[in-house]
Amino acid sequence: MAGIYHADFKAAPYWWEAWTPTAADPVDLPAKVQVAIVGGGYGGLSTALELAKNGVACVVLEANELGFGASTRNGGAVSGGVNIGKSFSGKGLDPSSERAQAVLADGSDAFALIERLIVEEGIECFWQKRGRFVGAWTPAHYQAQAKKVALLNEAARSEAFMVPRERQREEMASDYYYGGMVVERSAALHPALYYKGLLDAARRRNVPVCTQAPVQKIAGQDGAWEVRTGRGTVQSEQVVIATNGYTGDITPDLKRRVVPLASHIIATEELPEDLARSLIPKGRTLSDTRRVLTYYRMSPDGKRMVFGGRARFTQVTAEESAPILYDFMTARFPQLRGAKVTHAWTGNVAFTLDALPHMGRQRDGMHYLLGCNGSGVAMMTYLGWQTGRKIAGVANRPSAYDTEDFPTHPLYTGNPWFLPAIGRWYRFRDDLDRRLAGNA
């Protein structure tokens, strides 16, 4: 597959062409603050922004460059959380339950929040509210989607409707799926520029956002914490953990509640104008109902295909993941065979055992917001906003994700040793379902 690469190929996110994570402008660590936030991604910045708006002094501690993690590596789709699926156990929420409706209502609020923040903070990130098409992998998947439409529209204001297979070409230049579902209240943005916008908003409010400050130890309890970093120690009254897919050993109890899953993405070279315009006529983001998920869209300027998915469930090199994604892409769009790949990259997504995002407080009083299950753009922003308001004591509708029940498993210590086996099983089940559907 060496022939798929462009001469200027980079094993780095395409998004970094517009804004690159940086360690420039080092900020001194304050000796004492009210709130220390561990993790400088969307969640950490959103928490800091809301705290600062309410007069609460805080610091953001980032282990690497600002924007190093998934906040500048994701696909840029904004669903508001309505695509949260089943857990690794295969059990999901009962769609008819009050809990499911509350979760979807929070997803709706998350979408509204991110849209409002972009306007209020003047964030220029190519916000494109053009909806999402979710392709049905089999006819049975199509029927399952159809059963969810009413709930999505009632609880999450999704503006969802079904598209049968004979009309699928209205959504994509391919007959690959068995129809699918459109969610009109869905959007896309440039993830690195959105991150930059949140960072600029926090800095305008004088929030110290400290780069290259890996947290080495957290000691204390609610009201009196000591956070030791590679650049010094901070005393704080409250601590917030917003590390998501990069949660590590400094918080072992939280590490064993999230499963870091690698997601891989490629971007093509600029395509011929007529071809680029034809691929996704309405400019939507696309995904599908496979267990081994794929998600894709055109770049904000409409010139490239940006294609992501679970090429592998663990971290592998871009050179290993890119050919797999290229095969996925050209299976859906044979007309892209011959297009060269200019960028390939990967990042960690945090999944949870119940497939739901979580925020809350541990017994010692430490706050956390973790596990967005692939809906991190809106959900990490939302959970950070909710956490900031909670700490600041601002009256607010409680989040459905703010519960004491954050499940783990006795055999899981934070090492996702089981992911390769799950990946093989999911691929086998996907292939079997597809073959059975084709023979039906």
Q: How are the strands of the largest sheet arranged?
A: 1-17-13-16-15-14-5-7-6
The second-level CATH architecture is: 3-Layer(bba) Sandwich
| Total helical elements | 9
**What structural class is derived from the secondary structure elements?**
alpha/beta
Shape call: globular
Keywords:
9 helices, 440 residues, globular, alpha/beta
Short description:
The protein has helices spanning 42-53, 98-120, 139-155, 191-204, 252-255, 273-279, 318-332, 376-392, 419-439, and strands at residues 5-10, 32-38, 58-61, 77-78, 132-135, 160-163, 180-183, 187-188, 209-210, 215-221, 224-229, 232-241, 259-268, 285-288, 294-298, 305-309, 341-351, 358-361, 367-370.
Characterise the protein shown here.
The chain has one domain (2-392): FAD/NAD(P)-binding domain (3-Layer(bba) Sandwich), CATH 3.50.50. It is of the alpha/beta class and 440 residues long. 30% of the residues lie in helices and 23% in strands. The strands form three sheets. Strands 1-17-13-16-15-14-5-7-6 form a nine-stranded mixed beta sheet, with helices on both faces.
Secondary-structure map:
Layout: E1 5-10, E2 32-38, H1 42-53, E3 58-61, E4 77-78, H2 98-120, E5 132-135, H3 139-155, E6 160-163, E7 180-183, E8 187-188, H4 191-204, E9 209-210, E10 215-221, E11 224-229, E12 232-241, H5 252-255, E13 259-268, H6 273-279, E14 285-288, E15 294-298, E16 305-309, H7 318-332, E17 341-351, E18 358-361, E19 367-370, H8 376-392, H9 419-439
Parallel strand pairs: 1-17, 2-3, 2-12, 3-9, 5-14, 12-19
Antiparallel strand pairs: 4-8, 5-7, 6-7, 10-11, 11-12, 13-16, 13-17, 14-15, 15-16, 18-19
